[in-house]
Write a structure and sequence with these properties.
Anaerobic Ribonucleotide-triphosphate Reductase Large Chain, 18% strand, two-stranded antiparallel ribbon, 2 domains, 15 helices, 14 strands, twelve-stranded mixed beta sheet, 457 residues, single chain, alpha/beta
Amino acid sequence: MLSHRDILSTLEMLKNENLDVRTVTLGISLLDCASDDFDEYKAKIRERIIALARDLVPVCDEVGDRYGIPVVNKRIAVSPIAVSGAPFSSSQLVDVAETLDSAAKEVGVDFIGGFSALVEKGFAKGDLALIDAIPEALARTNRVCSSVNVASTRAGINMDAVSLMGRVIKSAAELTSDSDGIACAKLCVFANIPQDVPFMAGAYLGIGEPDAVINVGVSGPGVVRKAIDRALASTPGLKLGKLSELIKRTAFKVTSVGELIGREVAQRLDVPFGVVDLSLAPTPHVGDSVGEIFQSLGLTSIGVPGSTAALALITDAVKKGGAFASSFVGGLSGAFIPLSEDLNISESARKGYLSLEKLEAMTSVCSVGLDMIALPGDIAPETIAGIIADEMAIGVINRKTTATRLIPVPGKGAGEKAYFGGLLGEATIIPVKNHGSSAGFIGLGGRIPAPTQSLVN
């Protein structure tokens, strides 16, 4: 239970420290919409989405107003389209993506996830059709997000899928060359994808989930930074163990707020409540930065030596606090380090503190992976695949979720800026150093076997 002091400090977070419910995501199962009649399938999924999500935005606004806690984003996640739309061709699935986009626009949500495939162990017909459709689908829609799971600790790494995704990312960037390859900002490649991710672009509704469910994503990087700053100002020389405890207590309060909002929205929509995902997910706004937390902990910038250790401390403390606050913590829950969505992190890359190699090292302890990484437009698909493969290996061996959201920016090189707008922000394009060819290795294909922990049942 929250004490009176906890309640007052939570009100201070809301007023001055950018605390909000970053997203309420309504998961919608489309599995019983499956049909071998294409027009019937499209009609069913549109009808299902609009029927269940019609009141999502107004209900979130009403609940937010009632408690004085803004719900910034309202989103939808659907069952993997590669499963429900398995009978159809890639061109037909592009049409499905436009149907999803239209339905999302009609109900007023900002993103709809689930243009997805799970191929960690191999491809089905629907998977191949969907992956082939991704570039055009994302180029022709504004709200549709896509994810492909290519690896897991139980299955290993599907290197054929990794290779294919390198080409898909390159193609998606080229189709949106007039907007710095923005289609790639809506595409995640995963290892060990959770079934209940509320954050885009990776959100989809897992096969084991209910027909409809509310999942909440809460973020509070500004809250954590202010708490550290206050503690160090009042108690100079405070040790890291005490700072970890402080972050844990802060995460507890933030998670409690998220679950409160999520349960109320779920009750009003008459659907089950799923999980609260407490992830320190930043925005491009000053004061809402994960990168600034590193400076509060005494580092010149995120990326300097010590950054991986600091991120490990932050992520662990956030998870402990969230787990204590709720029995239903899920999704990714930890800390995002996106290159474009965090003004401080983007600036660190521009100044040279943060390289691709350091980012990769930090993903071994963060909650997701290489996120919103702008790359030179002339990068080879095999090099993109090599970066994906490295990140998947980190996830598989460490039994954690990792992902890549890589954006080769057409016509631009290292050091230039890529502009995506809105929540996606802007990023300095970072070089890929020492990138001799990965083509021979990627071309071998097949599957990298799962590590021995895959035998734990």
